[in-house]
């Protein structure tokens, strides 16, 4: 299909309009990002002023390249973009316009965006943007984000896709998640969506085999019906989490000036999310916690949570946080409780939350978790392993992960603390266990998974 | 006053009952902590089995030390503690009993705790604990926490005191705060409070010149009236934040087994907090955010928040988070807004939140913040400085801190992101600015300061 957006995610050739040798220019950053990220296709810098940029042959115009190009990235002043798109007619399939200065910037920009829209229609070129960062794609190794990797880490390959209306949100979330080792398939910062919108991206992701879950950050939607249809299609196949910001009156005003969109009444969004079967989440922290959970764990069979810890105080905090998010924490079933009492030292409290105290060992941690998860009482578990107990070793994460795999249940790790604790995070991650830094973050992640359970069951 | 608890915080001599040469024993960890933290007074290891422990002369019994001892730390099995306390009568002023196995562990422990209580009364020795970590005191350089510094960082000296019923919470919060460079005066993990309780600690802190603010973590209270009186006395002189956990039914059950205390109905605590003028906060995350705010900032003159950022999406998130916590975010006053429009590039949105966009410079950031804060519209500001904009330099934190000082208003820094961003945190901290890692964390801190404003005004 000529007009599909698939070519954005599997380009064989990319032209960079406005390529520059000047390091401080965003077009220079983008070119370096493309090269460094390991894009395997052909890259064509375009600028009449240079013969070569970053070691690549530079072309004076898009017309001077032989053959068709899958993707063109535009990093030129807004007023030159519409004509440049028209110029690429018949030559280019898709365009990413990172330039700002469109409808987010007032009446003049709004007129420019109209021009851009009609240029897209008349040329048959699909457009992502303007006023966006474009795409980071770990599958096709494409990276158009104009924040250098030294300032914002790129993620390893993974099964979670991220869609974001806000560029600064996309880059901040990517940096945070990548720094925590979270794998991602594709990130799309779509900005003002003069052409391609979140609905079309959701349709693509619905059938994208590289993507197992989707996280969507939105400030507004333009065509509600289309959005619900596309989101519903995607959510029927994989968990889709959505965060809508601009709830506050003040927040609304900010969102309106930020991408030129009206944030709208939150209740309408809620209803749309419910209709489409989306997992509703709230703000930056729930977005990050949800991404961490969805990137590592499938939806649990039920939303009943078992909490186990070696530090009583933290267990109480997790229970409080879970309770605030309306998670269920039923007590351990009699049979399992009896078995646990028979096999554990008497000073361990056999309850939910369960406190294994400072006398815990790796084996007892695993044993208690396994017995509690062995029947249908719980759909998932939060373990808070504080590293105080002297008998705990670096083998603990493998023991815990083994139980999760055998019981086929998501296990979330809550590990609050400072430098020493953070150094241990990698041990859990290497075992495929997501690590959360506060009781509340673990509860947020559990709540997202619990909602995923109720959508899919 | 012979029975005051002052000697716990200015001891000249400490005896460690049950000192051991075995590295895995907690008494060995405590002795090392005391030495490493730089305690200036005399340390007496006590154990009939050794002549020397960790290079210090070891005494067979407390009675073999000449003269009186300010403080004795007990790290011996629970059943031996009551007699050991009686043995120290007339010799020791205060005792910290870190041993567990008292009322938190069932009927036998409950009987032991009764014995401990009467031993304290009959010997005239004040007791902190049992089932606690004791004290980390950056003023007297005393450290009885039995988690080694390599596993839980000790804080630099500061003006915030922390009281915690839960030992695991105390050590986790200390580690987290210390790893973020937050200064603390004294931390008391008081455990089962067989004798000294949170009320007496609050009375001490009320007149403690080294402490400018207090953070209290509690699971329960035994004597509500006494608590309200002591807390009210302290809160009249300095901000006191209190977190009460065990709200959830499940949380309650966990708290009950954890320190043997009944968590009680939360509404009663709320009323008590209000009566005493405490700042109520919620769970681990609000505790940490509140500690960071109170350790660096005095209460603002009003609770009206100004939000300024260089990434629109993050500004919207902060506004949403502030709105959820009922903070006020009035628009910029006309006069200041006109001044700002005259002195700023036209594409900056002059509003609250204010988005300076990727074109911001250090100077424009400072200028916009200063003009917005110059009159009484706002009591405090949250700045979200994302490090994407190419013109921002490492001078920004000094510029921002300068504005805060000149305007005499707390400025909270919201800086979400990954590794690069975390490396920049120290720049803000060096300028005395607290750094928050998510929009929600910054909002929580602002909410705590806003509550401090309303208590003191």
> What percent strand of chain A?
15-25%
Low-confidence stretches of chain A: none
Question: Within the largest sheet of chain A, what's the order of strands?
Answer: 9-8-11-10-12-13-14
Give the mean pLDDT of chain A. 92
Overall geometric form of chain A: elongated
Q: Whole-number radius of gyration of chain A? A: 24 Å
> In terms of quaternary structure, what is this?
homodimer
The share of residues in helices of chain A is: 25-40%
Q: Biggest interface: chains and residue counts?
A: A-B, 81 and 80 residues
Total beta strands of chain A: 19
The DSSP helix count of chain A reads 15
Structural class of chain A: alpha/beta
Give the terminus-to-terminus CA distance of chain A. Answer: 34 Å
The major β-sheet of chain A equals: 7 strands, mixed
Characterization of the model:
Two copies of one chain form a homodimer. Chain A has helices spanning 26-36, 81-87, 107-123, 167-179, 198-206, 224-235, 249-259, 266-276, 283-296, 312-324, 334-343, 362-373, 396-407, 419-430, 439-456; strands spanning 13-17, 42-46, 52-53, 56-57, 69-74, 92-97, 126-128, 134-137, 142-143, 157-164, 184-189, 213-218, 240-244, 279-281, 305-309, 354-355, 380-384, 411-414, 435-436. In chain A, α2 runs parallel beside α3, α6 (224-235) runs parallel beside α8 (266-276) and α10 (312-324) crosses α15 (439-456). In chain A, 40% of the residues lie in helices and 18% in strands. Chain A contains 15 helices and 19 strands. Chains A and B meet through α4, α7, α9, α10 and α14 of A and α4, α7, α9, α10 and α14 of B.
